[in-house]
Amino acid sequence: MDKHYDAKASEAKWYKFWEEGGCFHEEPGEGVPYSVVIPPPNVTGILHMGHALNQTIQDILVRWRRMQGRNTLWLPGTDHAGIATQNVVEKALKKEGKRRQDLGREAFVERVWEWKKQYGGTIVHQQRMLGNSTDWSRERFTFDEGCSKAVAKVFCQLFDEGLIYKGNYIVNWCPRCGTALANDEVEHEPNHGHFWYVRYPVVGSEKGVAGEPYKDYVMVATTRPETLPGDTAVAVNPKDDRYAHLVGKTVILPLAGREIPVISDDYVDREFGTGIVKITPAHDPNDFLVGKRHGLAEINIMTDDAHMNELAGEKYCGMDRWECRKALVADLEAGGYLDHIEDIDNQVGHCYRCHETVESRLSKQWFVKMKPLAEPAIAAVKSGEVKFVPERWSKIYFNWMENIQDWCISRQLWWGHRIPAYTLRANAGAGEDSKGKGDELIFVAETAEAALEKAKARTGNAALALADLEQDPDVLDTWFSSWLWPFSTLGWPEKTKDLDYYYPTNDLVTAQDIIFFWVARMMMAGIHFMKKPPFKNIVIHGIVRAADGSKMSKSKGNSLDPLELIDQYSADALRFSIALITSLECDTKVNKEKFEIGRNFTTKIWNAAKFLEMQEAALGEAGADIRSTFGKPLSADDRHILWACDLACRKVNDILEAYRIQDGALAVYDFFWTQICDGYVEYVKDSPNKAVSLAILRDVFWKALRLLHPYMPFVTEEVAHQLGFLRDGETIMRAKFPTGYSGDDKKAWGLSQEVYDFVNAKREAITAIRALRAEYKVPPATWVKVTVATGDERAAVEAESLKKAMRAESVEFVPVGSDLAMPSKITAFGTVYLSLEGLVDKAAESKRIAGEIAKISGFVKSAEAKLSNENFVAHAPEAVVAEARRKLAENKEKIAQLEKLAKLFA
RNA sequence: GGGCUAUUAGCUCAGUUGGUUAGAGCGCUUCCUUGACAUGGAAGAGGUCAGUGGUUCGAAUCCACUAUAGCCCACCA
């Protein structure tokens, strides 16, 4: 083996080997399936720490299951990310001085596809750097042919079932981009605004003179005076005694002169403003809901680009909204309607793309009725059919699902799945019955041809042609394709073997921020279209944060780049470190130094492997099989490591079964570093039976590598080959994941908890002597005399190995209770005494001892009190009581010895 | 305002149904380049588990309140 591990070369080599060798691929058929779909990253994306965490967890689960022998599929892919991708391409166009409108829809979409072809693979290549064992032969794209088919079918089915409708709704509207924005696409920012107090005269009251107050009016406070022409009511709280007498009356809308009712609604906050609100259903989301409850008219007074329309009144028609605000406020003042103006700090929504102030606006959009879909999805989690890990996330899921709102699925973009709804062009013969209530005739079908047939049948006009149909210009929300991801990627709506075998998937691993957008919707779609929830477990992990706890973002410059970390430390180091420092329970703060853990561990593994190789070479018996130890006597240390290995194997399996990725990393780290390297390797160096010990080391090493493989795929593969555990062409990916030793083997080797504890006790004794040496500043070169008071007859056998470890010229054994005045420490092995032969400063030592006695006395006192408490003795488990007794006795003995010592130094 | 979560060593975090004198990594102190490894080894210092009260023989763990921090939703006319 080389002196240093070349991670870069190794990682490139093995990934190529795995991918080209089809190691990530399985065919449906035999065995128990285990499948996972990746949360598809945006095709515009580049790999960030969130991906690294998310995908590391998935790869650990997937590699582990594969090694267990499950027929495993981890399906990769990307999301077409409508608005983000369109934005990227628009930016590129801008550099050429063009807008998308200059190209026209078709050419623009073509242009986006070209962009995708050229740059869309970036993240897919970056994922390979992580070592993901995704089956690239099944890679999908939410906008590929199959997924598009699925989207069209789903839309049509939901429409036929009456679950999709087109309706007026209040949406966040960006006047500059000309599109509806999802709630998460609106950024709220603090704003210094004003509160305009406006008087609405009560009908029947006398009109005052201009500039003077009306005698009888209601005072409304508003931050949006320009929406006043759209008011269709004013509202008060039903419990507000101040205004109870007004409810049911009508008031005059200033300037417009219309009469509007005074209504009462719980939405109104008595404490805020004047306690009276103007209701503008077409321009405020809350007012919209109030309007629905009270059957109010919705008057849209603005155009798509936020200019006033004719409904705003002749004077304001054509004005920009801010211009209108000025003009209208001036007119209110002139008319005596304006009482006063107040400063107020509030929040105003901005478009996340162009930063224009978002307008709440009534518009025709497509919606999915969510309630009927949500109910079975709630039930699936309630019944335990689908589980959240950690379980608490189900609360958040229920909270959202039980208050679910209809989903606005139309977007005024060009890049995305075109809505499969068609209307007849104006000049086409539509037939008499299609006109009437102002509703347009809509034909929803998966293809234009099918829509045409429907149109012909509906209108009775057989002469209609495709050219007479006009497709809805909008596209669907990106999530409308991702919510089908677990089955559309397996071939649905076709009946494929993959779908049959791998659906439902087993685990879905994602961060908390898309539980609503994605997880909940996948649940609904899976249950509705496949009749089965799309996965069995939903594993939610935290978010990766910067060292100061803030979100990582490129603009802040506080983000770590996983690719840089891979370059500097290796993919294994990145994976292991992130697994070790991340708990599912909460967010993770990371800084660069954290990744040294994984890098150092990689080095440790490499060096330990070198040790094994060298020792075997020296012995001239390279690669002895564990079977060569059968029937041979094993030392306590040999049996100790075998027991520890067995424990580790069981532990890691149990831990991964419970998705405790972090604990698994810790367990395997501790097993390798503490048990194998610090413990057994140190023993092997001086083992009296090296051939046997090396065979054992070889065996536990191979088990450790396999336990580690899900976390550190590359270095484990490399070392497994270097040490000859695998032949050329074989891979650790397909090696069996260790489950521990058989009961028969353990019996034959004489393994037991007792032996394991004995060796731990022996090591404790060694540590105690080292500590005593350090306390009394005995130089390392000085060989000391050690005495051990023990009743354990096994101890004497260890005298030789103790000598070396303690750097003792002699180790003497005496019976328990021997009266020795020497510095000592009590261990499970026995009490160890260190002969100093007058090496210390007596005064200082005497003082130190006094302090120590005081400290231990405190404990003895409280322990005595505890043990004299009848209730404790009666209720506490036996082992706890026994342990307490033992500790008490031990500490009493400690004090006795210290007192002897004190006399010695007095 | 509604919902959720956190507060344990200087830092980042474990601590699984309540039960030893509360652990790990990093950092820090001291010592050690002995043939796997200084990206290492040995030893050590450092915590009244945010606060107050309650339940209990026993609380970091369960309950209530308080303080502080964070997240999500709704967002204020």
Tell me what the structure shows.
With 906 residues, the protein is α/β, with parallel strands linked by helices. It contains 29 helices and 29 strands. The strands form ten sheets. It has a four-stranded antiparallel β-sheet. α17 (562-569) packs across α18, α19 (596-619) runs antiparallel to α22 (690-708) and α20 runs parallel beside α22. The model is unreliable at 430-438 (pLDDT under 50). The structure holds one RNA strand of 77 nucleotides.
Helix content: 40-55%
What's the tally of helices? 29
Say how many strands there are: 29
Largest sheet: 4 strands, antiparallel
Alpha-carbon distance between the termini? Answer: 59 Å
Average pLDDT figure: 87
Instruction: Estimate the strand proportion.
Output: 15-25%
Protein structure class: alpha/beta
Low-confidence stretches: 430-438
Cα Rg: 38 Å
Q: How are the strands of the largest sheet arranged? A: 6-5-14-16
Shape: elongated
Topology:
Layout: H1 7-20, E1 33-37, H2 49-67, E2 71-75, E3 77-78, H3 82-95, H4 100-103, H5 105-119, H6 122-130, E4 140-141, H7 145-160, E5 164-174, E6 179-181, E7 186-201, E8 217-222, E9 233-236, E10 250-252, E11 259-264, E12 276-279, H8 285-294, H9 321-334, E13 338-351, E14 359-368, H10 371-382, E15 387-389, H11 393-402, E16 407-408, E17 410-411, E18 421-424, E19 443-444, H12 448-459, E20 469-471, E21 475-476, H13 479-482, H14 485-488, H15 497-502, E22 505-511, H16 515-530, E23 535-541, E24 544-545, H17 562-569, H18 571-581, E25 588-589, H19 596-619, H20 636-657, H21 661-685, H22 690-708, H23 713-722, H24 743-749, H25 753-775, E26 784-789, H26 799-806, E27 808-814, E28 824-827, E29 830-835, H27 842-868, H28 870-875, H29 878-905
Parallel strand pairs: 1-2, 3-4, 9-11, 15-23, 22-23, 24-25, 26-27
Antiparallel strand pairs: 5-6, 5-14, 7-8, 7-13, 9-12, 10-11, 14-16, 17-21, 18-19, 18-20, 26-29, 28-29
Helix pairs in contact: 1-23, 2-18, 10-11, 10-16, 17-18, 18-19, 18-21, 19-21, 19-22, 20-21, 20-22, 20-25, 21-22, 22-23, 27-29
The structure holds one RNA strand of 77 nucleotides.
